Amino acid sequence: MIVDLTDDEARAALPLKWGTVEPGVVPGWVAEMDYALAPPLVDALTAAVARGTTGYPPFGDGGIGAAFAAYAGRHWSWQPPEDATAVVGDVIGGIRLAIETLCPPGPVVVPLPCYPPFRDIVALTGRELVTVEVDPDAEDAALDLGAVEDAFRAGARTLLLCNPHNPLGRVASRTELADLAALAERYDARVVADEIHGPLVLPGATFTPYLSVDPRGILVTSPSKTFNTAGLHTAHVTALDPADQARLRGVPLPQNHAYSPLGMLAARVAWTDCDAWNAALVARLDDQRRLLTRLLADRFPAARMRPLQATYLAWLDLRAYAVDDPAAAALAHGVRLSPGGDYHQGLTGHVRMNVATSPERLGLMVDRLAAALG
Ligand SMILES: Cc1ncc(COP(=O)(O)O)c(C=O)c1O
């Protein structure tokens, strides 16, 4: 059910991921997948384009709240009310809207490493950024709740949570999330949970939607990472308090208008008609994870990979090979990976590798990285 794109097809489908590398270079950087779209999406989008559905999006959520609630109920045994969701242009824009509209004034806590736009979005809201670091040598990359409490005590009132985590590939436990929720409540802080990787939890891990343990939390998500639809620009924000929902919907149009009718259609179809494809994708990513683990053990046993519990983004600690910038070295050998320092400034010797490709390309990436590390 998961169809690998050829290099030419991938170059046509993914202009950023493939269009920014020289021919012959394997792109294992930005979080997009080298797989054909799920057939229900192709059918729905093709028919919509044939109908000329390229006008402005409608007011309202176009049924996305109900479709997402049903998906969450089927997959995670948790279901927000159907009318708790507002559509936004993308997850990062949704996080910005959530901070500006729903979060009390005060600094924003961002755990590191983080998806780099988290830092930029905090700056754009004019709020102070407070970082809390995961020690790269820690056995478990759990959130440091002691450091989070220090930040709340010092005045921070918002925390950006990424669960499942990009780039660590980690899934937080229910207990850990409940402890965070208790801390946020004690300090009257809000947690904005980016759960874009929620449908990409791999066998062996269990995903807990943050709002299922914290009704004051704010969820921002999108089907775009799971279904490769980032360019359609549609995501959504869910808040359980009707007053919060009213605030989200009440913003002036220019503050939230960057979503598309094709993206709204894709979101509805993805959350409704693509469960079988989603399951096949998770099975394929599980195979890729197993293959990468084996290749790493064979080719560079001193590499340390964080357990990949979710996402298709493997976090590799290559410090044992004493190459400060392994992504730059890898590019010189024909594979583009994401430098660890992009996610945790000043961190050397790490890369993020996107494994959502064919087994052959994954093998090439590892071969070339091994050559780069000498
Ligand atoms: C954790 C996380 N949030 C957000 C995004 C981007 O989402 P969007 O393009 O909808 O802003 C990504 C993309 O990789 C991501 O990994």
From TrEMBL:
<dbReference type="InterPro" id="IPR051798">
    <property type="entry name" value="Class-II_PLP-Dep_Aminotrans"/>
</dbReference>
<comment type="similarity">
    <text>Belongs to the class-II pyridoxal-phosphate-dependent aminotransferase family. MalY/PatB cystathionine beta-lyase subfamily.</text>
</comment>
<dbReference type="GO" id="GO:0008483">
    <property type="term" value="F:transaminase activity"/>
</dbReference>
<protein>
    <recommendedName>
        <fullName>cysteine-S-conjugate beta-lyase</fullName>
        <ecNumber>4.4.1.13</ecNumber>
    </recommendedName>
</protein>
<dbReference type="InterPro" id="IPR015421">
    <property type="entry name" value="PyrdxlP-dep_Trfase_major"/>
</dbReference>
<dbReference type="InterPro" id="IPR015422">
    <property type="entry name" value="PyrdxlP-dep_Trfase_small"/>
</dbReference>
<keyword id="KW-0456">Lyase</keyword>
<dbReference type="InterPro" id="IPR015424">
    <property type="entry name" value="PyrdxlP-dep_Trfase"/>
</dbReference>
<keyword id="KW-0663">Pyridoxal phosphate</keyword>
<keyword id="KW-0032">Aminotransferase</keyword>
<dbReference type="Pfam" id="PF00155">
    <property type="entry name" value="Aminotran_1_2"/>
</dbReference>
<dbReference type="GO" id="GO:0047804">
    <property type="term" value="F:cysteine-S-conjugate beta-lyase activity"/>
</dbReference>
<keyword id="KW-0808">Transferase</keyword>
<feature type="domain" description="Aminotransferase class I/classII large">
    <location>
        <begin position="48"/>
        <end position="368"/>
    </location>
</feature>
<dbReference type="GO" id="GO:0030170">
    <property type="term" value="F:pyridoxal phosphate binding"/>
</dbReference>
<dbReference type="InterPro" id="IPR004839">
    <property type="entry name" value="Aminotransferase_I/II_large"/>
</dbReference>
